[in-house]
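REVIEWER CHECKLIST
Item 1: Sequence provided? yes
Item 2: Single chain? yes
Item 3: Sequence as submitted:
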Amino acid sequence: MIERLYVGLVHHPVYNRRNEVVTTSVTNLDLHDIPRSCLTFGVKQFFVITPLDSQHEMFKRITGFWDSDTGKEYNPDRAEALSIMRFSHSIDETVNVIKKQEGVFPSIVTTTAVKRDDQIGFGELRSHASEAPILLLFGTGNGLTEEVHQNAHYVLEPISGMVYYNHLSVRSAAAIVLDRLSSEK
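Item 4: Structure as written out by the authors:
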């Protein structure tokens, strides 16, 4: 298990199908499912990263319910998982929050479904985990922009399945990556 692991779900800057840089919408399913995976695998905090204040309002409504007495009573496990979720306007803001909490800048690790020359494996990333906190970034839409990958310390190898098809939902990818980082030997 990586002791100081943070996860960010990036809604900007990401690509759309036409390879244009866009801002994607925050989805209710991501806000419910990814924090549960994060808490299961010991992630310290899960950041939802988007510059749009309108998305922040939706985020506050969802987390507000689960933070209320009604939400906590209705499903205490869900409320606990969502308690590690935090809104952020940018990757830079997220990095600064982690730096303030940890006293040191995190190593930024990006994920992608595309095979690249500069990628590291899950085991290699675990070996770097003691050096600094890790901010693991997942992209929405059609993935993180090349600029985000270029500014990262590491790019994690993609998840390989048994066949050529490789188009997982970000919720599924996050769960698989977190499992591999915590359990693969």
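Item 5: Key structural point noted by reviewer: The chain has eight helices and nine strands.
Item 6: Recommendation: ____
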